[in-house]
Amino acid sequence: MGLRFYHTSADIRGGWQSDGAACLGGMRAVNEATGLVIVRADSAIYGLLIEAGHVTTSPCKIVVNCPTADTVQIKIDSDSAYGTTVTIANGETMIVMCADELQWLKISRMSANALRGKETVRIVTQYNAALGGNNLVTEDASDYTYASVILKNEGAVNYTDVRVFSKSAMLAVRQEAVDSDGDIQTIADEFTAPIGIDFATGWPTTEGAGLTINAGESVGMWIRRSYDSTISARLPLDLVMAYTVSGDVQKAGMHSYVARGQASYAEYELFIAVDPAEPVLTDPPADTAATLAGLQYNVSASTTYNYEVLYRNQFGLVARHWKFDPLIVNSEFEIAAALPSDPEMVDVIQRSDGAVIVAGLYTGAADGTDRADTWRLYVTYDGTNPDPDSDTPIDETMNGNGVLEYVLTAGLDETPVKVIAKVYRSSDGAENVDETIHSTTMDYDFPLGSRPLVTGNLLFAKRAVIQDVQTTYIDVAKNIRWEFDGVNWTLYADTVALFAVGLTAIESYCDFAHDAQTGAASSDDAIEVGTWTEIEKTLWVNVNSQHVMKIDCINKEISCDDRVFGALTDIHDRPAPYTAWPCYAHTVFNAYNPVTDRWVSIASIDSNGVLTCGVDWEDNTV
Amino acid sequence: MSTTLTLTPFPGGYDWQGVATSTLADPTYRWRKNGELVATTKCNVMMFHLDSGEDMEISVFDDDTVPDESFPSRDRFQWLHADGADYYEISEYVDSAWVVTAVIRDIGQWIFAWQTRVLEDCVGHQFRIRSMGMYADGSYKTFTSYMIRRPDHPQYTPVIDADTGVLSFV
Asked: Could you tell me the sign of the dihedral formed by the alpha carbons of A510, A516, A519, A520, in that order?
């Protein structure tokens, strides 16, 4: 379009004056009164200058693409199709349109280098264009402010019937003829009305009564803006210009925004509600005041509130809502500290040795200086639910990072454990609210396929130092037992010692017979009680639930396939101690060394019945 | 075709978690920060970080809806290459003096851009960009900006008059 809006108040004719809010008449500037700001990425296409544009929504992204060395096309970012591809030579200025031709960019090519690449241009509506002037902060809704632009016909043809419409109640326009130098009158400031400009009459808008602006000619346009009573950070200001060129009636528009503020509009706003309700921010505040100290609200004793104070600035923009803080008013009208916030990620974790770890995290960030300082655990081991009102808690002083990792000592296998983990503030005895019960059972992590030597007795399953003499019965009738004397485990059948597992070897009180054993075990136990009568007393040592060694307790004879001495190599790192347990294809006999606190594998018997003594291995996990 | 967004501040208010929901069965979320598309995700949770005093307008849609207007806390300037400039010195007018806040080197770009710090609300700010270098003429352009944005969240401590039961703030 040949008709362009230029800023005024340039120091020299056609000089630089980019401040749209300072157009007080006088000489025309080179700067156009565009209503949009174009923001280009740092990776702008080299050689392209994007001067102006129009979009139907703002903000908006436009993709600029150069498919060939001399062409450019654009599209709205969310559109799939580009508009018409335009060929642009070095030095040319083109209007490049999207598929929707109402949305376009004015692009100049500033380089002969081949165009290439793609960039995204962001278009946002500009404040303080010539239409908007300075943002308004005043108590007076009756005054006016003034600004001016100069329309110049930069084309080669004449424009007739040029009319300007104001689409905003705040705006009025009126033309002023330029003098012989192309200037218009100058006003002292934006509050000074230009002389002889009758805004009441306005720009001629009657059909056929518009102005004629011939090629190269200019006309001044004064804009009078009234104070809208509406408080807003973004009031739209629109002018529409209609004209006839080459017989065609055309329209163009100028679009801008202005912020309308009022100093007295700035205020602090109190939103408050009685707990558990929360204030509704869209409702009127409970109190407002120009200063924070001016806010007042009558509270009731022994009542808890939720509240937040927000600030609204003179343009009506409100601080962002963060959160509602609790306000606990006690019977003495004192503000009590809020209860500590709940801990997070509380869990009870089984440890392989039967212990239970209670873990949790207390950040307490919302508690400010009223942080909890102690973990408080309510624990039961009998399946009942812990009761913070009656149970005695375990108190654990909180470390600096608020992490809890408390170990509940191991008990019997399958013992039910229930825990409520709370945080406690020692200064006033307050605990957090949450009383979620976390449950687990104590569990011993037996090796795969292994069983304790004595079912139902966990002494051998414990990874603990045995310091006292122990006696462990294998059978219900208590005829068969292991006895530990501080050095050796000895297997007794009634009063008869069959063999002892010592630190260095098996000390046998029986004869050995090379006689392979067969048959399935009656259980998964490593030591199985077979026939047990007055005349026949048999124990089986099992491997993989198969009989591989028989102990004749009457005749004190141990029968198995073979007997060799040597070292095993396939005993793996297994929790100890067990005096005997199946390990893959072996049942291993261990002995405890109280000097080193270690368990030593003395002998093993494999699935073929091969008994191996002097096993060079000791458990390192104790 | 409609979404909800819940923004939750982390302690300190610098980090926010946004959780979106949609009425669509298999929505794709478009997260916009101050109107600018920052992510397109299937996940309905997004984390945002703010610098001190910075505000943001977060909107999330399950279609191409244009976001609400926003009031960014920073201004962004653009200028064209100046002949002979090796670098550009950006100054802010603080306490009646120009204080250099940034230096942008000219390595042949055609257009330059720079974003200001978070600017105080309802206050005018002035910035100056000056071309510098052996063959630069030292000319400068001055930008004046009146920042209008969401005000900062007020800091306050509640107090109660035990005699009257009146709550006030300091």
From this structure: positive
